């Protein structure tokens, strides 16, 4: 998509300039730009709706009291301390990271060859394989969870970090497929030809030319599976059969007892981690959503 | 893409667009062998098993025994509770999708018309991060805000609008609010890519011709973004049908959706066959809605992946 900014002939901005003239006029007693003001108010409320919940979680996580009070009585790191010194939370964090790591390896190991084959070869049933790419977003995860649970029961596997990683890895493989597929589709194939003409073997060309070009996409696919696996609850819960406890599973069961600030603290850790990883993907790919 | 690939390049012949290591004959079999095997064994087989299990009897002691019975489907279709839950799930999802459009549209518009690319990227990163943050944390956030001693009640009481808490952290309102909150980023990104494609000059022209902001929106921008609006509605609707966590955390049994019932059948009642039957009914509903969207609105799978990382 074109990501260029659209310079305006008058040098102003479509929204900003008009909105502020409206406001200035309103303040100076000129004609009131009511639709403009209403639009800004509506936008402001929508933004508050998106941001407020996270900000409130952050303020609860640093509250020195048992509950959040307004105005907050100060700032304290005690809830973060409590999370990081509690062996159960630490174990859950470690389990979550292990599952996410396994899931990203599994998903990229499926997505990479699949994307490569779809891009380069005349594969039969190409359309069928490609529509697999939207599955994780369109099939209710609870159904995938039930399917994996019955399957693992049938072949005699109980919940473990391994089964969780496999379930997540397969479910999130389409993200790798789509991202790497986009990279292969956009790359300039003549550079491969040049490498071959200069005497590189097939494998050398793949390793030294093709892979570096699509590296950002492969990397984003890996990070994506990692982020999604880290945050996934229902498949993990169903497959785990109460034996493996990831962070979302632990948060969910803690919520039954109370809305403790400890949950806010672990949530903030998760918010920071997820945001950092998403920012890395955005940076690396130059904005895949843009 | 597909069109560029060629499966046969004669050995020794100079190919104008393809290097000569391009596969000859069945080379794709070697590359595809591993991923296809894994997907068949770990994706196709589990889904096929799900279908099979939904017809298996449920013995009183175990998970399921091999056999054939229609009892789970009969139970699902003759028990008012399950039909009622299905109807509720569909209604809640439709409502959520409309709410997400209402909240998401102004944000998407602002993003699409933002001058600074850097600022826009910061906003988009923030929205995408919230999008993938586990629904549990986000439901918890909504629960905290609405709880009896929560921020919102305290605020309203301090200001003096009300004298007693008016919001509770569980019920229909928290569920609707929570669903809107967790799914709105998907709507925003889908709408954003659609609005971003509208040339700003069209708006300028409309304004120069004397239309005010509202008229420009109603007569120019909105009609041009209609496809994005349909796609965003559909995407949120489908995602909301599968929602499990929000209704479970923010709802009382009256607000439980079909996925919650399915999860409970498997984990609490240990009735995997009945859970599988309900799951298949659910998949059928989702597929039917996707087919309708494809037929009447011409929305393909690609339109609906706007919330995903497939970009443009």
Commentary on this structure:
The complex is a heterodimer of chains A (290) and B (312). Chain A contains 13 helices and no strands. In chain A, helix 3 crosses helix 13. Chain A starts with 15 loop residues before the first helix and ends in a 5-residue tail after the last helix. Chain A folds into two domains: 33-76, no CATH class; 81-285, MetI-like (MetI-like fold, Orthogonal Bundle), CATH 1.10.3720. With 290 residues, chain A is an all-alpha fold. Chain A has helices at residues 16-27, 34-61, 78-85, 87-120, 126-131, 135-138, 141-154, 161-186, 190-197, 202-231, 234-240, 247-255, 261-285. Chain A is globular. Chain B is mainly alpha-helical and 312 residues long. Chain B has one domain (69-304): MetI-like (MetI-like fold, Orthogonal Bundle). Helices cover 68% and strands 0% of the residues of chain B. Chain B contains 14 helices and no strands. Chain B starts with 26 loop residues before the first helix and ends in an 8-residue tail after the last helix. Chains A and B meet through helix 2, helix 4, helix 7, helix 8 and helix 9 of A and helix 1, helix 3, helix 4, helix 5 and helix 6 of B.
Secondary-structure arrangement, i.e. CATH architecture of chain B: Orthogonal Bundle
Alpha carbon gyration radius of chain A: 25 Å
User: What's the name of the CATH homologous superfamily of chain B?
Assistant: MetI-like
- Please give the most extensive interface between any two protein chains, plus how many residues each contributes: A-B, 110 and 115 residues
Domain module count of chain B: 1
The CATH homologous superfamily of the largest domain in chain A is termed MetI-like
Instruction: Give the biggest beta sheet of chain B.
Output: none
Number of helices of chain A: 13
Proportion of strand residues of chain A:
under 5%
How would the global form of chain B be characterised?
Answer: globular
